[in-house]
Write a structure and sequence with these properties.
Belongs to the AAA ATPase family. BCS1 subfamily. Pfam families: AAA, AAA_lid_BCS1, BCS1_N. InterPro entries: AAA+_ATPase (IPR003593), AAA_lid_BCS1 (IPR057495), ATPase_AAA_core (IPR003959), BCS1_N (IPR014851), Mitochondrial_chaperone_BCS1 (IPR050747), P-loop_NTPase (IPR027417). One of its GO terms (cellular component) is mitochondrial inner membrane. Helices cover 39% and strands 17% of the residues. It contains 17 helices and twelve strands. Strands 7-6-9-10-11-8-12 form a seven-stranded mixed beta sheet, covered by helices on one side. A five-stranded antiparallel beta sheet has the order 1-2-5-4-3, with helices on one face.
């Protein structure tokens, strides 16, 4: 909120209720590191005005004073006020100052996305700024990333098209599927690609009811991403994040299924939830619903959602995120171990030679683009020997592109189709960051262990 005095010579601006204490200065592009200090511990230095003190300076030949104060707004919320006084004859100087500050803030946030959450007071609070995640780091089945990105870009460029046809300028996406399949990571990456901030709407937040939810949605900026994670949990508090038996275990009795449906219906009217289905629907596409925003909702229980919530106009595009395929396993392995920078095999072999690694001469001299099985075995054996004793990536040898592709193919062949989540595969590869050969050799035992643990977990409800 900005206040300006009407005096012609003394222009005053008061920036009320600042959303972040650092005023955008916590960005790595702005914060002072102190590179001359060899013992730099990574903590950033930021300059902020002290409370209850007035600072005087000159800006474009005009006298300027800055005062930062803090007061209590309500019981739990503190309000910060930054008051700027400029001695000038018109608002032009003040406008130039605010525009310059705005450009500096956007420059600091150029490679970051801002995350906002709702407070109990009903206001949006800036909690953090996260680096943009490259879209290439998300491993999905072919076509899924292009579908979501192209559709969102087309929506943001179609405001006039919606207006001419009298259609509310809103777009909703429902991402559903197995836990750990990349739904939230994809939203994070899309926010960076589209240059939009993320506003997290927690439907299970204490004190949130239909009225406050509608007010939160209506106060969203025109261009942003509204994120509702686990949207089914707002009405089904007893549900778990684990995959249900419908994906892994069949032959369930009809009586048990009917009993589960009764429990789900009872959970909708549970006093633990102050959000009603009608209140959520009105907030999404009611008269006071904000336009221009993109809504992403995630759920692990697609069939548990009410059909009214899933209809077009509220959730326009439904995208299923399945458990990992062999294609995803192969691409994830390449993402971990493929040489960066797009270097070819020749450059990689020269780098490997400089680091005195043991690479097969036959594999280096081979002109074929697809290595034979014997070449793959020799390469793996030599690499296994060269990786002994290396614990960190900077100490270990670098794989050539051909070697990484050979190991990726072998790794994918050992991964069962649609049984493991991408999160579990990533966790497994994280334990072999500089040991790709061991990751391939031990993956079969790890898969059997995961199957045994999943079978044990699925048996627990039947014994209770």
């Amino acid at each position: 909120m900005l206040w300006l005095s009407k005096h012609p010579k003394w222009q005053q601006a008061r920036i009320v209720d600042v959303s972040t204490r650092s005023f955008g200065l916590n960005s790595p592009a702005v914060a002072i590191r102190g590179d001359e200090d060899e013992d730099y511990d990574g903590r950033k230095l930021c300059y902020l005005p002290s409370f209850a003190r007035t600072y005087s300076l000159w800006y474009q030949r005009h006298y300027l004073s800055v005062t930062r104060t803090e007061s209590q707004d309500g019981i739990y919320h503190m309000k910060e006020v930054l008051q700027i006084d400029i001695l000038a004859r018109d608002h032009k100087v003040l406008n130039n100052l605010l525009l310059e500050a705005k450009h500096a803030y956007h420059a600091a946030e150029e490679h970051l996305i801002s995350i906002y959450v709702s407070e109990t007071s009903g206001n949006w609070r800036h909690v953090t700024s996260r680096p943009k995640r490259p879209l290439k780091s998300i491993v999905l089945d072919p076509g899924m990333k292009d579908l979501l990105l192209d559709d969102a870009r087309d929506f943001l460029q179609s405001k006039e098209w919606y207006s001419e046809r009298g259609i509310p300028f809103r777009r909703g996406y429902l991402l559903y599927g197995a836990p750990g399949s990349g739904k939230t990571s994809m939203i994070h990456s899309l926010a960076g690609e589209l240059g939009l901030d993320v506003y997290i709407v927690s439907l299970s937040r204490m004190g949130l009811d239909d009225t406050s939810l509608s007010a939160l949605i209506s106060e969203l900026p025109e261009r942003c991403i509204a994120l509702m994670e686990d949207i089914d949990a707002a009405f089904h508090h007893g549900l778990t994040r684990d995959l249900e038996e419908e994906n892994n275990v069949s032959d369930g009795s009809s009586e048990e299924k009917g009993h589960e449906k009764e429990k789900e219906k009872a959970a909708i009217s549970s006093p633990l939830s102050r959000i009603t289905l009608s209140g959520l629907l009105n907030a999404l596409d009611g008269v006071g619903a904000q336009e221009g925003r993109i809504l992403y909702a995630t759920t692990n229980r697609y069939t548990a959602l009410d059909p009214a919530l899933c209809r077009p106009g509220r959730m326009d595009l439904h995208v299923e995120f399945k458990l990992s395929s062999r294609y995803q396993a192969r691409e994830l392995f390449k993402c971990f171990y493929l040489p960066s920078g797009g270097s070819d095999d020749k450059d990689n072999r020269e780098d490997a030679t400089k680091r005195k690694t043991s690479v097969s001469d036959s594999a280096d001299a081979s002109s074929s683009s697809t290595p034979s099985e014997s070449d793959a075995d020799v390469t793996s054996e030599k690499l296994a020997q060269s990786f002994v004793g290396h614990k960190h990536r900077s100490q270990g040898p670098q794989l050539s592109r051909k070697q990484a592709e050979v190991l990726a193919d072998r790794f994918a062949d050992l991964i069962p189709e649609r049984e493991l989540s991408m999160a579990s595969l990533q966790g497994y590869l994280m334990s072999y960051k500089v040991r790709p050969v061991e990751a391939v050799e031990n993956v079969s035992a790890w898969v059997e262990k995961e199957r045994a643990e999943r079978a044990k977990k699925n048996k627990r409800p039947s014994n209770s």
